[in-house]
């Protein structure tokens, strides 16, 4: 793929991934053909900032985990009221990384 398109994709969507993953993503995007560009343009990534806000407001109900696609963990948090609050507090520190990891997995499925 054209390096200009890849750089535009990285600049637009870089905040949705961990910083150490960006170089791997760039190398992988450069090596693929242009036919996947239209699919990449339509991908919707979850915003880590929204995830932390939802986690702060509704984390004890598991809403944060439902939003990023961890339905099993969401149900667990819902049934235990966020692990009696402990799981909720732990997720305040982990949810942004989990969101970025889910975004990376979504991109890997397309590539």
Classify the oligomer.
single chain
Overall strand count: 0
Radius of gyration: 16 Å
Would you list the SSEs in sequence order as H and E?
HHHHHHHH
Annotation field: number of helices: 8
Q: How confident is the prediction overall: mean pLDDT?
A: 89
Straight-line distance between termini: 12 Å
Structural description of this entry:
With 111 residues, the chain is mostly helical. It has one domain (3-110). The protein has eight helices and no strands. It has helices spanning 3-13, 19-31, 37-42, 48-58, 63-68, 71-79, 81-84, 86-110. The mean pLDDT is 89.
Write the layout of secondary structure elements.
Layout: H1 3-13, H2 19-31, H3 37-42, H4 48-58, H5 63-68, H6 71-79, H7 81-84, H8 86-110
Helix pairs in contact: 1-2, 4-8
Summed up, what is this model?
The protein has one domain (3-110). The protein is an all-alpha fold. It is built from eight helices and no strands.
Which key phrases capture this entry?
111 residues; 8 helices; mainly alpha
């Amino acid at each position: 793929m054209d390096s200009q398109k890849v750089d535009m994709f990285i600049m637009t969507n870089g905040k949705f991934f961990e910083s150490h993953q960006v170089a791997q993503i760039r190398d992988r995007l450069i090596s693929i053909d242009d036919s996947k560009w239209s699919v990449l343009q339509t991908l919707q990534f979850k915003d880590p900032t929204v995830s932390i806000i939802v986690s702060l407001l509704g984390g004890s109900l598991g809403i944060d985990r439902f939003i990023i696609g961890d339905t099993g963990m969401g149900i667990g948090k819902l049934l235990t009221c966020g692990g009696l609050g402990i799981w909720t507090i732990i997720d305040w520190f982990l949810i942004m990384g989990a969101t970025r990891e889910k975004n990376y997995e979504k991109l890997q499925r397309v590539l």
